[in-house]
Amino acid sequence: MSERKDEIILRGLTENNLKNIDLNIPKEKIILFTGLSGSGKSSVVFDTLATESRRQMTLNYPLYVRNQMPRYERPHADLMQNLSPVIVVEQRPIGGNSRSTVGTYMDIDPLIRLLFSRIGQPPIGSATDFSIQSSFGRCPECGGFGEVIAPDVNKLVDFDKSLREYAVQFKPLSPSGWQGNWMMTCGLFDPDLPLKDYPEEKLRLLLYGPREGERAYAPFHTKNGPHNAEWDGLLPRFTRVYINRDISKLKQVSQEDVIAVSTHSLCPTCQGSGLNPQVLECRINGLNIAEYDQLELPEILKELKNIKEPMGESIAKQAIPYVQQLVDMGLGYLSLSRKMGTLSGGEAQRVKIARHLGSSLNNITYIFDEPSAGLHQEEVKLLIQMLKRIKDQHNTVIVIEHNLSVIKVADEIIEMGPGAGVNGGKVVYQGKLEGLTNTPTAKALKQKIQINKSPKGRKSYFSMRGARNNNLKNVNVDIPKDVLVSVCGVSGSGKSSLILEAFKERYPDSITVGQGGIGISSRSTMATYMGIMDDIRATFSKATGQPAGLFSFNSLGACPVCKGKGVITPEVAFADPVTIPCEACGGTRYSDEALSYRYEGKNIIEILELTIDEAADYLKQQKILNRVNTLKDVGLGYLTLGQTTSSLSGGEIQRLKLASQLQKKGQIYLLDEPSLGLHAEDDEKLLNVFQTLVNKGNSVIIVEHNLDFIAASDWIIEMGPGGGKQGGQILFEGTPEEMLNAETVTAKWLNEGVR
């Protein structure tokens, strides 16, 4: 290949499982990376290309600025040339606090506030006065939250118990915490008398504190003697410490703990907007700022285009493109006030993409991690148009993707493989779509969708009546038991509201496997996550007569030099971080003593280097075998027992979570887009897992867009017809064969896939 300047040159890549590969990636094209889950796509795109670009970008800043920025280690590669700045659009949930909305994330809210401050009538003042973040702007009653939260005395207190018997049912105020201890020892209250037997005045003092103008001294006893303190009342204290302050900073208690013992109702003063009633008086063309926030996006566009006042028109023109981008991405059913945390995976992904579409920069490398995730086939068309638009602005678009429609529009395809994990890490194909033959992707492109023509019989049902969660329109539905059910429909149509909320509320014992990541640290391995590491250590302990802790790199068996990390990161001021394998243990994490003991001829490291497939033949304990077999069932047999969970791909994590739940004898499994991150070849393995579960008498309900999964189901429910207010209804219930005769968007694509 000629090494021209208009291509990214990568040589000798060895990050994670990459087998010393070389790549030339042309610029200003749509480059698509595909391959089995765990084949090495992310290792090339994220861990090498994106990391090195970011590392080199930070080198342009002065040292004192770089010290405040994220620091990147140089990836394992011989040569990385002609990189351009990268913008990464990942699948990770959007961060931000509980107040983060579509309007704040897209930077539309500041423009709307500016608009109201300039042309709203009657005039209020500055733009910041229209925000719940300002002391004037926020509602004086609810502090800007839109809800009045108050302690519920009947949830907080069990009047049949004494203080010592945990009458206060909120952990930080119970005897297990210092505040509960203080109540029992301050001398004001009898700690052993049930609260229902307290004299009325004493109970009032405990719950509400002293009457106005009075004080109640309550010494606080420490090892240094009593300290003067005043009792303020259980409910006032709860309100002050846990409701009127940011409890995300507290370690012992979460928002959910507080809500569990509280009542919350719509604030009557601001009607849920969180804004000062004076601010709500200010209007533009009859609408106040809270009403603007509640409009669906096409309605906002209409309002903004109606503004003719010169000052207002110039501000509206700045906001219109941002709103238009969201509408173009098929998100017209959202409002600016929609909380980012409530968006589905597909919706959040598209909001992120829309945010980058407004940029006029070019010669940038955009990296998309499965942008079709969470999108209905109908919406993938919008995505493809958007990718082409970004490329046409002289940018390079790199996409990791399994969706066949997206693969078909790529200018160049790079398939990683041939297998996954240790069996992957090579480039099995690079070139145009026409030349793709004899690879898993080539096979998937040729395959037709297989309709399940003999679905399992339906004998009994889970019944739901009058479901109204989010946008659900009083939905009544009977979902068959002991079969595989797919719930489909466009983004925002109500699939998650129906299954992951309404259904889960009615059947709380359901086992949910969602899209969220797992808590991953460099010390978490496949064996620890699956709960078999203790059994492996116990096996070694029994065979050698040594303590089990000797076979843990977090305990007695840790290498004394790297303390069980396997690597050493020297602190070099101002330099990029460098991770060096520990010379003492050779990166194994274990001490020489730990490695000197053997079980069946192998030391602990040699056991952890076994793949899941090999472990099934080598380890004899039934509990270990049961768990190892569930990993094989979900197609993770190629991973090793000692592989760190932090090195797994998104598809592998999803299947690992599923495997960890398969050991439970649960009756109902709810899965949120289980095909996420999976190549078509992996889909088959996962469908087999579902069939096995169903054959054992379990119910499996999946929220899914993948047509292979929908076609293989026993029963399909389609939500729609649109998203947001236009959704929330059931369009179709029936078997895959019956769906071929239906007139819905999913039926249209199913028919196309069968042809």
Give a quick set of tags describing it.
34% helix, single chain, alpha/beta, 755 residues, 15% strand, 6-stranded mixed β-sheet
List the SSEs and their pairings.
Layout: E1 7-13, E2 21-26, E3 30-35, H1 41-58, H2 63-66, E4 79-81, E5 86-89, H3 102-105, H4 109-119, E6 147-151, H5 153-156, H6 178-185, H7 200-208, E7 220-222, E8 225-227, H8 234-243, H9 255-260, E9 262-266, H10 277-281, E10 283-284, E11 287-288, H11 289-294, H12 297-305, H13 310-328, H14 345-357, E12 365-369, H15 377-392, E13 396-400, H16 404-408, E14 412-417, E15 426-431, H17 440-446, E16 461-467, E17 475-480, E18 484-488, H18 495-506, E19 511-513, H19 526-529, H20 533-544, E20 567-568, E21 580-581, H21 592-595, H22 604-608, H23 612-618, H24 622-633, H25 650-662, E22 668-672, H26 680-695, E23 699-703, H27 707-712, E24 715-720, E25 729-734, H28 736-739, H29 745-754
Parallel strand pairs: 3-13, 3-14, 5-12, 12-13, 18-23, 18-24, 19-22, 22-23
Antiparallel strand pairs: 1-2, 1-4, 6-9, 7-8, 10-11, 14-15, 16-17, 20-21, 24-25
Q: Can you offer a commentary on this structure?
A:
- This protein has 755 residues and is α/β, with parallel strands linked by helices.
- The protein is 34% helix and 15% strand.
- The chain is built from 29 helices and 25 strands.
- The strands form eight sheets. Strands 5-12-13-3-14-15 form a six-stranded mixed beta sheet, with helices on both faces. A six-stranded mixed beta sheet has the order 19-22-23-18-24-25, with helices on both faces.
- The longest helix is centred in the middle third of the chain and has 19 residues, at 310-328.
- The radius of gyration is 30 Å and the shape is globular.
- The two termini are 39 Å apart.
- The model has no long low-confidence stretch (mean pLDDT 89).
